[in-house]
Write a structure and sequence with these properties.
Layout: H1 12-20, H2 26-50, H3 55-62, H4 66-73, H5 81-92
Length: about 100
Amino acid sequence: MKKQKNKNLTSFSDHLDQQYGKRGTENREFFEEGFEAFKLGVMIQELRKGNGLTQAQLAEKCGTTKNYISRIENNASDIRLSTLMRIIREGFGGHLRMNVDF
């Protein structure tokens, strides 16, 4: 049996183009930057929970405050690269690697 395509479906990429404009536009870049910050907060939270740590325990391990960890996880604070590296290294025993996409 052949599957029919739903012509009313929109790809996620097309949805973003419609909602925020094409990549490179001011609105789209603002959205993309915010989304990356959100993903970073979620990653920190998942790592913390996966390691069985509370926000206070993670903060103590890496020399910051529970409030700061909470703000990072809830996308309410910009994070310095040096602080992120310290959280990954001292809080989780890992190493941060980065990519740049063009």
